Every structure is written in structure tokens, then in C-alpha cells.
Amino acid sequence: MLSTDPFTAIIGHERQKKLLQHAFTSGKLAHAYLFSGFDGIGKRLMALALARLVFCDAGNGCGKCSSCRRIDHNNHPDLHTLEPDGQFIKIEQIRVLQRALAYRPLESTRHIVLIDAAERMHHSAANAMLKTLEEPPYGTIIILLSSQPQALLPTVRSRCQHLPFSRLRQTDIDKVLQSQVADETERNILAALAQGSLNKAFGSDRDFYLNTRRDVFTRISRLQPGSILPMLDLAAELGLDREYAEAVTDILISCYRDLFIITARGSSALLVNTDLEQSLQHLARKHTPASALAMLESILRCRTYLQHNVNHLLAMEWLLSRLVFTAPTQQGRQNKRA
Ligand SMILES: [Zn+2]
Asked: Rounded to the nearest whole angstrom, what is the distance from the C-alpha of residue 79 to the centroid of ligand 1?
């Protein structure tokens, strides 16, 4: 028999599923939850599964009744979803929500509120939301989703039952990749770069991790210390915005880790970027383990700069010049010859 449990379609997070299921069946759902954790690991899916469970006409989140289907299509009148309008969730959005919550639910016995990227509530919006969290209309369930829970007002955080979500286990990701990606090389690269996020492996990021990665690494490894202009052009392209620059450092970390493995004569079974092996081998001829490590260190440092709001273009220029001008030490060269 097919299971009607709305949680079964969600990969991993067994503890969180059990906890929510138990709270529902024992009538002990909290009035506010904070689901925290890395983006793209299933927090929103879990919140929607809970909404199904609560609103389902059959009482079990069947996925087939009118209520379940309208949750899936985001048009259930008692499910209110909020997300940033531009950079922030604005106070006007919270006011609209509060007006809706002041009325009785239209079809169910309660309202469910889902706030995505809750850390982006503008200060005034968060303060307004605090009032609703303190005295929620009877039966209302508020679910805040956040990948940066530390950025929420402590007073907001403390009024929610906190449910942290971990990154997915590699075995869970492998299972999904196995069933959906036929090419073994692509599968291994995605598995290594997904970092516990299925969004990264299957979402719009997929092309970035497969094609952009190849392109960026190839272009960087062709830069010559003698000509600065192509380097500045590439830096301008890669440092266009902070988020993109950070994602570029992610893929570079995996490539230069491979470069280090090759210079240190590690097994090629350890390589992630097997599709780039030839270019990596070629670049490795100019380097020693020490110089490969120095480059890896520069990438990590660049990522820290980006996370600390250093100008992204400058950070990228700094990184590319480090990668182009990092030369193997004399000592390393001699060791290599020996
Ligand atoms: Zn249903």
C-alpha cells in the first residue's frame, strides 16, 4: 500500500519528521517554529508537509484532497507565505499578514504562516512580527525558515521552538543522484560539490557546478603573469556580485584541492574534478605541494574576505593575482627534481 505520510517524500531529517508527526498526533504543535539550516536541504518542504498534515481533509496529509492540492499549488486561503520583497521582508508585508490573521480562518480551524528567509525581516518588520509571536491568534502556527538564525532578533528567536536541520548525509544525496543522473562523472562531481544541499545538485546551480566550474578553472589556469589585463577582466566577471564570487570560491576550492592531491602524488581516485584531470595534470607540472597549498589557502582567505563584506571585485582581483603569481618555492622545485 502506498504511504500517505506527507513526510515520506522528504529525504533525510528523520528526527524532525518524527518530532512534528508526534506533536501533530498528540495535539501538541507549538504556535511558532524556527526551522534553521543550510539553504536547499528541505526546510520549506518540511513546513509544507506539516501544513498538509494540519489542513488535509482526510487528516493525514493525503496529497490528493482539495486542501492538500491547494497547499501544493500555494493557493490555500489559510496558508500565508511570506518572502523577501527585494532585499527585505518589509513591515507592510507583516501588516497585511496581521490583518489576515485577525479574521477567522476561511476553511480550516487555524492559520499557518510560513516566513521564508526570516532573517531578512527588516528591523521594523521583525518588531511588528514579535507582537504576533507573543500573542498569536488562537490555533495559529508560525513557521520561520532561516539559513542564518543568528541574524534574527533574539526576542524573535526565543519565542519559537527551534528545530535545526543538518545538511543531508552524503549517502542520502548519493541515493538521489544515483536515481536521477546517468553520467557517472557528473554524478561524482555533483555529489562532491552539493555540500548536503539537493538544491545545489538539482536546482539552477547544476549548470554552474558542471559547466561554469570547467570554464572558470580553465580560464584561470591559462592566465599568464605577464599580461595583467585578461586577469582584471576575468576578476570583473567573477566578482560581479558577492554571492556569485562566493560560489566561485567554492568551485575553486574543489579544483585546487585536486591540484594539491596531484602534486602530492595522491591517488587519482581521490580527485573530484575528474573531467578536468588533464588540465589539472598540466598545471600540476608547474607546481609543488607547497605552492598548491598556498593557492588553496588564498582561495579560503578570499572566501573569508567575501563573508566579511570586503569589496567583491577587489577580493576577486586579489585572489586571481595570488593564483597567477604563486610560484613554486626553489626548495619545492629541487625536491620535485630529486
Ligand atoms: Zn489531503
From this structure: 14
Please report how many Cα atoms fall inside a 13 Å half-sphere around the Cα of residue 18, on the Cβ side: 4
Residue 61 CA to ligand 1 center (angstroms) comes to 4
Residue 205 pLDDT greater than 80, yes or no = no
- Residue 277 CA, ligand 1 centroid: distance in Å: 50
**Rounded mean pLDDT of the chain?**
89
Q: Which residues contact 188 (CB under 8 A, 6 or more apart)?
A: 272, 274
Domains and CATH numbers, the chain: 14-164 (3.40.50.300), 204-337 (1.20.272.10)
Q: How confident is the model at residue 87 (pLDDT cuts 50, 70, 90)?
A: confident
Cell reading at 8: 515520506
Q: How far apart are CA 80 and CA 122, in angstroms?
A: 18
**Rg of the chain in Å (alpha carbons):** 24
Dihedral (CA of 38, 41, 47, 48) sign: positive
- What count of other Cβ atoms lies within 10 Å of the Cβ of residue 37? 22
* Diameter of the chain measured on Cα atoms: 81
- Ligand 1 centroid to residue 58 C-alpha, Å: 5
| Per-residue confidence band for 327, with pLDDT thresholds at 50, 70 and 90 | confident
194 pLDDT more than 70: yes
Q: What is residue 203's predicted lDDT score, i.e. its pLDDT?
A: 67
Distance 69 CA to ligand 1 centre (A): 7
